[in-house]
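testing teh design pipeline on a random one, pls ignore if ur not involved
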């Protein structure tokens, strides 16, 4: 087994691992059960109203 063979094998393995990880992240982001969690995070991040923040005890 030469260095070139090991290097090629590790590159191909890394590519497949990256593809699997990428598909997993995309599936997690678009999974229907996570919709409420992401929408709540979106509203919280964009909540700039001071009155709302005061009512929720953030300020």
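output:
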């Amino acid at each position: 087994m030469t260095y070139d063979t090991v290097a090629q094998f590790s590159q191909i393995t890394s590519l497949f691992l990256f593809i699997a990880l990428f598909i997993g992240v995309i599936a997690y982001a678009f999974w229907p059960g996570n919709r409420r969690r992401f929408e709540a995070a979106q509203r919280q991040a964009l909540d700039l109203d001071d009155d709302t923040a005061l009512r929720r005890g953030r300020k």
